[in-house]
Amino acid sequence: MADFRSCIVDHAAKGEIDAETAQVAQDAYDDAFATASETLGPVDADRAAADAAMAKLEAEAIEARRRRQLMIRTRRTALETIAGLKERRGYSGVKALGGGDGSGRPPKDGWVQGGTPPAEGPGSRGALAAMALKRLVENRPGLGGAPGASVEGRYRALRGGFDAGMADLIEQFETRTGLDRPGASGAKRATMDNIVREAFGEDSGDAAAKGLAQAWGETAERARHMFNAAGGAIGKMEGWGLPQSHDGARVREAGRDAWVQSILPRLDRAKMIDNVTGQPFTDKRLAAVLGEVWATIGSGGASKRQPGAGLGKGMLAKQRSEARFLAFKSADDWRAYQAEWGEGDAFQTMMGHLDDMARDIAQMQILGPNPAHQFEWLKAFAQREAEMEELAGLKGAADRAKGHIDLADRMMGHFNGDLNSPVNTGLSTAGGTVRGVLTGTMLGSAVLGEVGSGFILGRMARQFSGLSRNGDMGELIRLLSDPAERAMARRTGFIIEQATDGFVRATHDNLRLMTVGAKAEGGINAFGRRLPAAVIRMQGLTGVVAARKRSLRFELMGALHDVRDRTLADLKGGDARDQALGRWLDARGFGEKEWAIIRATPAYEPRPGAAFLLPRDVAQPELGLRLAEAIDMETRFASPETTLESRAWWTTARPGSFWGELQRSTGMFKGFSATLWSLYSHEIALQARTSGGNAWAAGGAMAAQAVIFLTIGGAVNIQLREMAKGNDPRPMDDAKFWGAALAQGGGLGIFGDFLYAAEARNGKSAPVAAFGPVGQLASDGWGLTGGNLLEIGGRLAEGEDLDEAVSGAHVGRDLAGVVRNYNPLSSLWWSRAAYNRLVADNLQRALDPEATEAFERGRRRIERETGQGQWWEQGEKAPSRAPDLALMAGADD
Q: Hey, how many other C-beta atoms are within 10 angstroms of the C-beta on 372?
């Protein structure tokens, strides 16, 4: 062994250098010696390797100091957020521990924040530091949030900025139906091929493709700079082109030698520089390094993990460089590799790369270069703060803190994918596919609920932040009808919802939980994940929700522009709307200093009379990102969606495990309800405390108003759904109707269905259906198979022949029911009645000899139970009349 390596071992053994430094030096030495020894003798190779190892150690030391400073700075910022939440919840004597001298040094007096909780009010129970950890992972809108940035909010702000830079490309290649893959064939395929060529520096002769490739290159380079500024170390590679997406299962199953032999001829070795020697790789060295890359891809990163490390996570700042390590000779070589070993979709690969970069940058900007380590430190800090509160006499603070911390930990697991990594891939794939298909077959009329409650939720959201309660209906209509208005909205710096809901790697948030995980291996479970997005698009819900969110963002940015000539003090002393806006700015952590910078932002005026303050134009980028997060967060009031917190409440185990699959299956569609009530109940309580009068009375009045209006919205939803089924509207003079409207309008539609359904649809296994849509599927499946076999067996034992037994068990009726209930066309509001009458009813006629009698019994049942008729009667080929709207006034005696 060479002398210098022996010196490293000796110094480590004597404790003169730590184990990590010794390992870095040894790895650098071994790599350099292996390369140098191919052309030099042992002595000269040892000298060259020693120089390389020393240079590596020096560079590592400089980078380690920078990362330590970033860790301390982000820690101070996080503690400043915690202190701000404490103060806004009534704590006194809080030591912020934020700010500092900018050098990244810890405070001289140690990391003890303290503070005395109030005698009464939201903070009186203590453990606010632990509660703030949840807000640090994912903030809340309105007064319920913490005055700082969050990991999830920063991700959305970053992703929105990346989407704005890619808006032209997204408009051409986003999915139209959720199931299609634009660019897979035809003219768009040719354009995408040209974009890939341009990205690799090849002249395609297509000016449009050149411009789109340039937009991709600029956006990817901006993401690289932001990653490095947050502590990363991704080098710039000229002619890099595009990232790679690898199917880990395919790579692993092929074996190391086959993968290396496949990729080696496609690589541009002149661009692949050995970071130890600074020179191109030798044949021997490149083969060894590619073997390590194969192990990393095939194991999902496990080959680089030390025992005890988190799932695929080390210091985040040291990851991502491998995405730029593999340099392909040409666009054709890249495409050939993707077709053989990856996902093969260039647009999806680009968007997936930016989505992953936004997630990693967000974690590093909020929690530092090593987010996992920082978060563990903050958890310990929060627990200690609560224990000190309990020591001072606040009983139960430590236990409350533990609950908050455990929930925050699960929230982070859902965000970074640790809690979505499958235990058993086969089981999680099957479960994810079933849940995805069920979602696609059951949510086809969800847009009708948006019609009923969307306006009401939007009105309340505007009231909370001091906007006009009725909103700008003209802007909403323009966003729904005018492509130019939508194009303008795409470029304002917020997430483009339509660009995320149909992709395997960048799926919409409320569908991510139903898959095998955010980092699913390419190809698997794709249909089950895309079907819900397709159904949501085809019913019009995607466009309506996007328009509502954009409209609220425009109104809030317009309101900020309109008050730009006033200080925060002016706002707090103004009318009710000004005061509400001032409270909102304060709750988000914008003081006079920050507001002065924000209101100095040049106005954005896309058309005469429409002026806004865009977060992307704020002079300080960090402040702009915080403002973008705050504005985006408010849309959760207007259009609630499942959150990390609501997922963490219900889902505590990884997919592919028994509990993980059970939790994901029974929790389908419940996250919306939990999110709605949690957000609104908390915000109403906090808003009531600012009313200046009796907080209980004010809160009760606001809650009553919300319940009344949401119940009315639920009533509208029920009537629209009934007519979509082919039924007349329900009479509204019935207490049961208003009970169902209350459940439906409050986001409890699934519970409402079970509340007013005496038994499951097949009437055989109702208790199983209590486990949600998967339970209902199991109930229907058992009724069709095992339930019918048992019934047929019993009838045979009673002396019936086989034909009589099968007919008596109604096997054909049950089969027709499965076809009727588990098909997107039976759920979509615009096809529901026609599909059920023209397809499902005729199928039942063919399979069930008693179909006509069953149709008549069903008609009499709904007439008896609710007083409804059918404007398109079961079994009929065409409607006999229009819906009887007069029936809403009450059924005739």
A: 19
